[in-house]
UniProtKB/TrEMBL annotation:
Residues 1-18 have a biased composition (Basic and acidic residues). It comes from Linum tenue. The lineage of its organism: Eukaryota, Viridiplantae, Streptophyta, Embryophyta, Tracheophyta. This is Aminotransferase-like plant mobile domain-containing protein. Residues 58-313 form the Aminotransferase-like plant mobile domain. Residues 1-25 are annotated as: Disordered. GO terms for biological process: meristem maintenance. InterPro entries: AminoTfrase-like_pln_mobile (IPR019557), MAIN-like (IPR044824). Signal peptide: none annotated. It comes from the Eukaryota.
């Protein structure tokens, strides 16, 4: 995640001779590829690319490859044939400038915005680097991960394993252990998820050392509370909401920055905007990100039901995805509260405790009715047929 923020000076300030009218600051990729083919196609008067070609002509092809990675892998958009002019300005710049950008933070900013947009009820599609979400789910929720053939799994000495830990999922996989791939089934399992079924910190220390030893600042930046910037997109990196994922003790998270709602309205349709000037304050925070680390101790053991974070989480979060899951969750919570009251009840105030237990029991009965007790009854015994004559 190290490097400069990815933000262009102005939307629409790059224009090449001969390219067609822009569509909201975007250029058709089909036009770009056609222009390159025309330039090097001798059948239409172009000059073919050879070993004697100029460095400038040779240089265009790795840039086109990077363009494909931006559009198709790390920053995909629903408009498959259009790419923002802001990206073209970066791609056509110097290699040093491209190498000094924080591509990872920009990719996360784009992904976070895509996930947020897709959470709207009317939205039916999603873009962004969804393979990151898939890898995260496979690592942290082993029960939804496919099995990798141990004979085909790559060892740490494999060259691609050194480049990216996620490459281990490129081996041969089987999904026989997952059952039916139904949305309702996944929602049901997530609603009934136990803490022991979630790997908060799935990456062994040897893996971390193996992959980030060349970048000693990276582990410290995993827990920095900073804005992530990708052109007009600003999304906050808030690790204090999931510190156990980084092996740290979970504390009460800070409030979301007040500016987040205002920046969330920036969708790139604000005209020719000088984004470095617009986001000057955020860029200064990014430049001192090493000073924004969330300092806590190491996480040890399980978090108790009445831990301040857990109580805040239950009070403020939407914990379940289905009405049935919410009913079951309330049932489990109620049983746990009854157990807690019975264990710590003050016998001198038995009447008050009994009244509270009665109210909890009423809630539990309501949850059981909502869950549908008839569903759990045994089916009726079929009638006995007379023997055939």
């Amino acid at each position: 995640m190290d490097g400069h923020r990815v933000v262009s000076a102005k939307k629409g300030d790059h224009d090449a001779d001969g390219h067609p009218p822009l569509s909201k600051g975007q250029v058709p990729i089909t036009w770009l590829t056609a222009e390159i083919r025309r330039k090097h196609n001798p059948e239409v008067g172009g000059i073919p690319l050879t070993e004697e070609s100029s460095e400038r002509d040779k240089d265009i092809y790795p840039r086109i490859y990077i363009l494909g990675m931006i559009k198709g892998v790390f920053f995909p958009k629903k408009s498959n044939n259009l790419i923002s002019n802001s990206w073209l300005k970066i791609i056509l710049g110097s290699w040093d400038d491209m190498g000094n950008l924080s591509w990872a933070s920009a990719c996360l900013a784009h992904l976070y915005r895509s996930l947020c947009n897709a959470s709207a009820r009317a939205v039916k599609e999603i873009d962004g680097a969804m393979f990151i979400v898939q890898f995260w789910a496979w690592e942290h929720l082993p029960w939804i991960a496919p099995k990798v053939d141990p004979d085909k799994e790559w060892g740490l000495d494999h060259p691609l394993r050194h480049e990216a830990y996620g490459c281990r999922w490129l081996g041969e996989k089987t999904c026989d252990n997952l059952g039916a791939h139904k949305l309702e089934e996944y929602r049901r399992k997530l609603d009934h998820l136990w803490e022991a079924e979630l790997k908060f910190d799935p990456y062994p220390e040897r893996i971390v050392v193996h992959h980030v030893h060349e970048f000693p600042l990276h582990p410290g930046q995993w827990c920095t509370r900073v804005p992530l910037i990708c052109h007009h997109i600003v999304e906050w990196h808030l690790p204090d909401r999931c510190l156990r994922q980084f092996g740290r003790e979970q504390c009460l998270p800070l409030a979301v920055p007040e500016s987040q709602r205002r920046y969330h309205g920036k969708d790139g349709r604000q005209g020719a905007t000088n984004w470095p000037e617009e986001y000057a304050k955020l860029i200064r925070l990014w430049n001192v990100r090493q000073d924004q680390d969330i300092v806590t101790g190491s996480h040890v053991g399980w978090m108790g039901y009445h831990d301040p974070y857990m109580e805040t989480y239950r009070r403020q979060s939407v914990r379940y995805m289905t009405p049935e899951g919410a009913a079951d969750g309330a049932l489990f919570d109620g049983i746990e509260r009854i157990h807690d009251l019975a264990r710590t009840a003050d016998h001198s105030a038995a009447g008050r405790e009994v009244g509270l237990i009665r109210r909890i029991a009423s809630r539990l009965l309501g949850c059981m009715r909502a869950r549908g007790r008839d569903h759990h009854r045994y089916p009726p015994v079929p009638p006995v047929r007379p023997p055939p004559v």
